[in-house]
Amino acid sequence: MQYASAIVNGILLGGLYALFAAGLSFMFGVMRLVNLAHGALAVLSAYGALILVRAGFVSPLLALLVVVPAIAALGYVLQRFVLQRTLTESPLPSLLVTFGLSIIIENVLLLTMTANTQHLSLGGFEKSSFSLGGLQVGWLPLITLLVAIVALGAMSLVMGRTQFGRLVRAVSDDAPTVSLMGANPKHIYAIAAAIAFGLVAIAGVANGLRAGFDPPSGNAMLIYAFEAVIIGGLGSLWGTLLGAMILGVVQDLAAAIVDPSMGDLAGHIVFLIFLIFLPNGLIQRKVRL
Amino acid sequence: MLELDGVSVYYGQLPAVREVSLSVPNGGILAVIGANGAGKSTLLKAIAGQLPIRAGRIVFDGKDVSRLPAYRRARLGISLVPEGRRLFKSLTVEENLLTALATRRKGPWSLEAVYDRFPLVAERRSRRAGDLSGGEQQATAIARALVANPELLLLDEVSLGLAPAIIGQIYASIPVILEQGTSILLVEQDVQQATRASHDVHCLLQGRTSLAGRDLDLADITRAYFGG
Questions:
Q1: What average pLDDT does range B169-180 have in this prediction?
Q2: What is the dihedral angle through the alpha carbons of A150, A154, A157, A160, rounded to the nearest 10 degrees?
Q3: Residue A236's domain spans which residues?
Q4: A71, A144, A231, B181: least CB-packed within 10 angstroms?
Q5: Which CATH number is A47's domain given?
Q6: What's the domain count of chain A?
Q7: Minimum-distance CB partner of A173 among B88, B102, B104
Q8: Do A182 and B89 touch (CB under 8 A)?
Q9: Which residue from B minimizes the CA distance to A173?
Q10: What part of A 176-235 touches B (C-beta under 8 Å)?
């Protein structure tokens, strides 16, 4: 029963990791940009919700209505005016700039919000659970997983069925030629970044409800997101969800069987095993995002 | 329609096109010919906005478009069928055509009209573009440019690497495109093919205009083509 519970909770935790990882995977798929500030942005979003709650917003969920558009807008501007300039043949400039960005965000948060661990609260709902065949299932993780599935499903529909989705896939194939079709690749990149940032904002707030956060806690999230993306297969949306679930299950199982402190390590080990034996991940990219 | 006035294009320090002036009349056609490396493709890329020009002016429909980015020129009605086709390989043929709707231009070339004109493309509409043969790819690339309903179609070596029968089919579509009021600027290595398609010929040699005129003598063109 203990294992079954660990597996179910691990799958639910995978929903949160998938929300983290989807934006990372999406930006890489579209513009070959690895955003090392992804974790820091999640933490920034959580602090954003915290500030709004302190300023009188009734609930962090209501704060999402402000935080998600704000972070998405930040994504658009940042991509259009900063990250765009780092897109060269070499991946190094974008890595350096996003790494620098993560350091700036972390330190600004340290200066303004202190290093104390913070929590977001839904008045106890975030800890509540229901019983399913003897298993305790948390409402918040379940809802997070559903949000992740809805978000990935929506993205998948947009990418597959709409003109914007076609242009995103086209730009990932051959950006200069997209401009011949009358669309501005920089604008498409920036919207893609806005979507990725919006997703990570949701993930950051969800994580703030689930666990405590402090300014440096984005680093661990970034690593989980990377691991989920690699296990699932770079650029595949549903692969990312699968990878995130595998990572969540492994972490929870190891914590339940071996020792509560072993979860992270077990996750890293499984990730390394995938990297060695299945470096392209579970779902090899057929259709790029 | 299109006027180039002393246009120069450089790759770094290297001049690829030097002080070229030419014009394409409204609804007309002009063939730019020249050997490999004469600067033909560079010239077309500069007109489409994919390469910056170092000197001169590009005027389209009375408007100086020299500094406009490529996507703005496409919206004004300049469509380039690029060298090597440059289809979006992971998209289907139909999706490739639909991307050109981003120009938001109205005109005779609806998806249906294009499929009617290019049955080969219609047959392959749900194939992935990366899986097409060379001829199918070229036809798709032209069809894609037409969906944008351009006022000026730039064709870059559409016959390159294709079987003669396919080249014939592709060139057969040129009069149809002209009939719809679209002007064409075509770049070609094959002199006979070019002179058959267009009375007006502009010859480039090492980036410079070596000869230009109407119904030119083949011997003159050959001299202008190879130099000497």
A1: 94
A2: -120
A3: 2-277
A4: B181
A5: 1.10.3470
A6: 1
A7: B88
A8: no
A9: B88
A10: 176-185
